[in-house]
């Protein structure tokens, strides 16, 4: 079983891809990310992707790393997604949805004439991304749910608990990471976690730290 038709492993993925630097945007394998595209350079990027393999790499700009606002330094790891939904609005915007395929590591940035950025990337470090539901049995599901319930209660949020109860561990952990309101460094740590178990642990730890900050109290030993 592959992540998406035609992508069964690192060797099947394109080595040079357009990248979309977007702060706080976390795409994970098999996750769904809706995007509202309106900047001319990214409209052109989508046009070009639709004419070829429909692949776009989501990556966070490293705002602390320097460079100019128009060409910020990038984190070294992002996630490639395929355009699986596309619609055009009456005012010239594109509404698209990306389905995550695999994380990638940026090897180098290409010198290109296009207004959007393109990178040479490698997927070899993330072969596990092509194995749906890999490592699900090792996830501390109870810990994830407890952290979620505590966060929901403190922030007075509404969630679909029936849907959460039915979700397999991979879908649950990845969806919660992608939807989480945490900062770029925290989301990058979730993205770069070596496996699903570790990603769940990062999610729990970050959520607990956020709850402690919100309460203004020091954590206590149990």
From TrEMBL:
<dbReference type="InterPro" id="IPR015947">
    <property type="entry name" value="PUA-like_sf"/>
</dbReference>
<dbReference type="InterPro" id="IPR003111">
    <property type="entry name" value="Lon_prtase_N"/>
</dbReference>
<dbReference type="InterPro" id="IPR046336">
    <property type="entry name" value="Lon_prtase_N_sf"/>
</dbReference>
<feature type="domain" description="Lon N-terminal">
    <location>
        <begin position="17"/>
        <end position="211"/>
    </location>
</feature>
<dbReference type="Pfam" id="PF02190">
    <property type="entry name" value="LON_substr_bdg"/>
</dbReference>
<protein>
    <submittedName>
        <fullName>LON peptidase substrate-binding domain-containing protein</fullName>
    </submittedName>
</protein>
């Amino acid at each position: 079983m592959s992540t998406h038709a035609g992508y069964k492993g690192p060797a099947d993925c394109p080595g040079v891809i357009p990248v979309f630097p977007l702060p706080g945007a976390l795409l994970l394998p098999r996750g769904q990310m809706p995007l509202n595209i309106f900047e001319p350079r990214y409209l052109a990027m989508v046009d070009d992707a639709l004419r070829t393999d429909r692949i776009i790499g989501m990556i966070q700009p490293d705002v602390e790393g320097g460079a100019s606002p128009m060409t910020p330094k990038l984190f070294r790891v992002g996630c490639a997604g395929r355009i699986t939904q596309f619609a055009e609005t009456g005012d010239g915007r594109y509404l698209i949805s990306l389905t995550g395929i695999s994380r990638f590591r940026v090897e180098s940035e290409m010198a290109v004439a296009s207004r959007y950025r393109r990178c040479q990337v490698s997927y070899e470090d993330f072969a596990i991304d092509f194995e749906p539901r890999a490592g699900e049995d090792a996830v501390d599901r109870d810990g994830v749910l407890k952290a979620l319930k505590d966060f929901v209660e403190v922030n007075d949020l509404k969630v679909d608990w029936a849907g959460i109860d039915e979700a397999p561990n991979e879908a649950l952990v990845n969806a919660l990471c992608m939807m989480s309101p945490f900062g770029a460094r925290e989301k990058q740590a979730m993205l770069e976690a070596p496996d699903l178990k570790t990603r769940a642990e990062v999610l729990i730890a970050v959520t607990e730290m956020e709850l402690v900050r919100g309460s203004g109290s020091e954590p206590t030993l149990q």
